[in-house]
Predict the structure.
Amino acid sequence: QVQLVESGGGVVQPGGSLRLSCAASGFTFSNYGMHWVRQAPGKGLEWVAFIRYDGSNKYYADSVKGRFTISRDNSKNTLYLQMNSLRAEDTAVYYCAKGVVVAATDGTRYMDVWGKGTTVTVSS
Amino acid sequence: QSALTQPASVSGSPGQSITISCTGTSSDVAGYNYVSWYQQHPGKAPKLMIYDVSNRPSGVSNRFSGSKSGNTASLTISGLQAEDEADYYCSSYTSSSTLVVFGGGTKLTVL
């Protein structure tokens, strides 16, 4: 079945780094753009980053621009999020999600498959 | 502050209908027919319930319906059931560089 499984979360000190992974199965990963979305404790959903199906275009929320890097390896059906210079406000559950987008703009129509999430805690 | 505005909470009794609103701008909700709705139970991942304003993915109950008028989209749940108690988020395509915007979420309580 169609599935996304995140991993790599954990506890890290402020200023530290972490790399999240998202393993995809059950669909042709290389045909779809992918998102990272996060949810801070008790808060709503916040879009973090998007990468086009072929990795050619990447987009970031202002809150993570310059600190986070999204990437993908289509040969491994895996999405990544490299997180550097982590702050307390980055503490959240991080979800990867399969995006259905408008091809001309990469704007997202909807996210139809979500992983269960991986928890990142930034604390000293 | 979220880009799309939703009520913080709504409630209804079993069997009743409720509607959750989602207000945006001409750059998102009003400008495109790409509004989606997600259901999230505590500790679980979001689940797509409505896409492209009013379409239901396979497997989603027909008690869930979506609509849009101007800059406000709506999610209606009819015949409320206890299992519908959850948080609901709207989302929209946006012409900005963020690609997608979310609402702040609405907590649905089934009384």
